[in-house]
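Researcher: We're teaching a course module on how sequence relates to structure. For the next exercise, students receive a sequence and then see the predicted structure as tokens, so they can try to spot secondary structure elements on their own. Here is the exercise chain.
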Amino acid sequence: MKYIEIKEKDGSYSYFYYIPNFLKASYVSTLTHWLEAMDDFNENKNYNEDAVIRYQKWYQKHKQYFCDQWKTKYKRWDAFSYDDILVDLEAHIINRLHSDHYKDIGIDIPNVNSVLIQKYINGHHYISAHRDTDKSFGYTPTILNLSLGDSRDIIFKRVIYNGSNKKMSKLDKEHSCLNMKFTLEEGSLLIMAGQSQQHWTHQIDREEDRGLRYSLTFRERI
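Model: And here is the predicted structure for the students to work with:
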């Protein structure tokens, strides 16, 4: 277990909480079989739209598009409907956070209504540096990321916040000591909360000799 709490200049906090073995091995196995049976993942391509960098499925309880304010629309961001396994998994995670009193350490437990499942076939699949858009999730979202399959490193880089979660914000070189990395292991849960999406980008780089990985990200789509 790894817990990082950082107080910002305005008195607010950014939270990063990594919990290994959040799910039991038997539950992990059940979820893995469920994911492996899916044959309707959408391609997610690079900026030039000429290479697949991972696969994904976006789920939203009211079938909302990922971000209504985006000018360009892509089919991969059309919503799937929850199934029973996803409903049960979401409830299991939220109930665990409540019963283990995560709210007492500053974690605002969200009213989750969406899940983004991403499938990384191997170490050549990646996700570039970004912050979760405030247009869909607000300025201080609590983000719950569950990992299944092979482990991958997630890298956080401190950026200069200018009032919007734009992808290309400048790196905060003065506070680069606050850059960090977590290794996301199978069955683990990573929580990002507070001001985390304002002051850090996160990314998963290409890595050699890595196998199949699934990432399930639970958030409240506002």
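Model: If you want an answer key for the exercise: The CA atoms of residues 102 and 109 lie 8 Å apart. The two ends are 30 Å apart (CA to CA).
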